[in-house]
Every structure is written in C-alpha cells, then in structure tokens.
Amino acid sequence: MRTNDHVRGHSSATLLEASKPGIALSPELRSLWAGARLCGPAFTVQGAGGDNLALHHAVLQAPPGSVLVADLGGARFGHWGEILTVAAQHRGIAGLLIDGGVRDADEIKGLGFPVFSRNNAILGTRKDFRGVFGGPVTVGGITVHTGDLVVGDVDGVVALPSAGAEEILDRADARLAHENELVKQLREGRTTLDLYNNFEAAGR
Q1: What angle do CA 7, 139, 74 make, to 5 degrees?
Q2: Can you give the pTM of this predicted structure?
Q3: 45: pLDDT confidence band, cut at 50, 70 and 90?
Q4: In this structure, what are the phi and psi dihedrals at residue 110, rounded to the nearest 5 degrees?
Q5: Average per-residue pLDDT in the chain?
C-alpha cells in the first residue's frame, strides 16, 4: 500500500474540514524538511525529554508501515538523527512525529524520511528511560492512540481516531468533489460571492 492510500490522498486541511474539532495538532509541529508528507497508522511512544532510549526501542517494536508518534515533552534536544533514521527505514517505518527536538536535518532530508517535530536542536541525549509503548500520548496538544491515522504535510498535522476514520474519509471524498465543482464554476466565470450564496461551504 502506498503511503497516501491510507487517507485516499487527502491533505491535512481537507481531513480537518471533514472531521470534528480536536484532530489538529499544534501548528508548532512542522515538517523538518520542505515537501515531507507523513501518513500512516500511529505507533505511540512515551519517552522522556533529553533521553532517546525509548526511540531506539520503538524502532524495534513498531510494525512496518507505522508512524512513530512520540511524546518527549517538547524538549529541545536532538532526540532523533541520521542513525535512527537509517535504522527506521530498514525496518519499514513510515515516519516520525515527535513533540520534541531532532537534528541532522540535511541528512534526513537526503534520506527522504518524513519527520515532523516541535523544534530542530543539536543538544545530545542520555539513554536511561526505556519508554512506554502503545498507550495514549499527548503530542501537539492532542491525545493520540496507537492505530490512529496520522497525516502531516505543508499545512500541518492531524490525527484521525481509528474508530471514525472511514467516516471522515467518506466526508473528505464528498468535500473534495464539492470543491472541484466550485473550481469548475469559477473557471466558467462565476464569482466566489455567487457560489457562496448557492453552496454551503466552510474554510475557504
């Protein structure tokens, strides 16, 4: 399965508009490199700020195709870098979402591995806390569970609850079809004021 197939190719913004409030993570969590797109089921990691032992264990425990979603308390340390990226890619991990810092941005970009983080920091870490895996974690102000669908792109990051993901995707399909119709009519000469008098639309 291609990465985007998990969410039928929809963007984070479309998924947010098709969902209930409470799935959008803090806008302070951004892609480490331009053009990165994160998409896949979450594998949650509770770590400790300034310590990256949990991330080493998570790489070994996460199933292929999953996105590591790690709570490191927003700490400004380089919890993740080139070495962990190579290890994660070898095991088929789809990406990293971390409420904390990472480093080796150029190397990670060169490897094409999607990382979304709160900050880019060079301070080294200790290796004392083995971590807790599979339970709920708070990342970017949102509680994420293992199995939730995580999508990150240039606009931001959302986490779709696994139980309601299919309904959200169906609404996103309908919203996209509606927006395509709006674009078609605009290109035929209609104005946005005309369209918003005739269509129920939000967020545009």
Answers
A1: 135
A2: 0.86
A3: very high
A4: -60, -30
A5: 91
pLDDT grade for 57, boundaries at 50, 70 and 90: very high
DSSP the chain: --GGGGGTT--HHHHHHTS-SS-BPPTT-EESSTT--EEEEEEEEE-BTTB-HHHHHHHHHSPTT-EEEEE-TT--S----HHHHHHHHHTT--EEEEEEEE--HHHHHHHT--EEEEEE-----B-----EESS-EEETTEEE-TT-EEEEETTEEEEE-GGGHHHHHHHHHHHHHHHHHHHHHHHTT--HHHHHHHS-----
**Using one digit for the tens of pLDDT, what is the confidence trace for 9-38?**
888 988 888 887 789 999 999 999 999 999
Rounded to an integer, what distance in angstroms lies between the CA atom of residue 175 and that of residue 42?
Answer: 25
- Judge whether residue 6 has pLDDT over 60: yes
Cβ(161)–Cβ(169) below 8 Å: no
For residues 172-190, average pLDDT: 83
Cβ neighbors of 88 (< 8 A, separation 6 or more) are 59, 68, 96, 113
Instruction: Write the DSSP string, 7-29.
Output: GTT--HHHHHHTS-SS-BPPTT-
In contact, 39 and 7? CB cutoff 8 Å: yes
